[in-house]
Amino acid sequence: SSQKGVKGLPLNLQIDTYSYNNRSNKPIHRAYCQIKVFCDKGAERKIRDEERKQSRRKGKVLDLNPSLQFPDVKVPLLQKRNDVTIFKTMSDLETQPVLFIPDIHFSNFQRHAFTTEEGEDSSSMR
Questions:
Q1: What is the pLDDT of residue 119?
Q2: Judging by beta carbons within 10 Å of its beta carbon (0-12, 13-18, 19+), is residue 30 exposed, middle or buried?
Q3: What is the value of pTM for the model shown?
Q4: What is the DSSP letter of 82?
Q5: For residue range 29-80, what is the model confidence (pLDDT) as tens digits?
Q6: Sign (positive or negative) of CA dihedral 120, 124, 125, 126
Q7: Which part of the chain is the Grh/CP2 DB domain (predicted)?
Q8: What is the DSSP letter of 28?
């Protein structure tokens, strides 16, 4: 994040592509990426700040060159950028994927008594 103190929670995503033709449970392609997930308030604040920055830039451009003001033009001067997430190909097509369902995973944590250190260091949680 461009803002100080706003940290996103890393989330790893994996997409497996299967072929109906080969009738196998093995994927024909596997890719992964890591995205950052922000809490609602942080995301709202980030969006507001980005909109303010964009409106300031737009104002500066118009102040520097008043001839750019075309009332009949429908396209904004500054296009909103498209965020892109690039997935990286994985060569391991053998390992079975794990579907993470928060309600199920977190209810398992509540059933088993363990300390915070045990839960954080557990290799089965990755």
A1: 43
A2: buried
A3: 0.45
A4: P
A5: 999 999 887 766 656 777 888 888 888 877 765 566 555 555 555 555 556 6
A6: positive
A7: 1-101
A8: S
19 inside domain: yes
Give the strands of the sheet with 9-17, arranged side by side: 9-17, 29-37, 88-89
* d(C-alpha 27, C-alpha 81), whole Å: 33
Range of the domain at 45: 9-70+82-125
Listed residue (1, 24, 28) closest to 16, CA to CA: 28
Any domain includes 1? no
Q: Are 30 and 16 in contact (CB under 8 A)?
A: yes
Which residue in this structure is represented by tokens 């396209």?
75
Kindly report each contact of residues 81-89 with a partner whose C-beta sits within 8 Å and lies 24 or more positions away, as own/partner: 85/33, 85/35, 86/33, 87/13, 87/15, 87/31, 87/32, 87/33, 88/31, 88/32, 88/33, 89/29, 89/30, 89/31
State how many domains the chain has.
1
Chain mean pLDDT for the chain: 72
CA distance 114 to 28: 39
In a domain, 75, yes or no: no
Residue type at 74 in one-letter notation: K
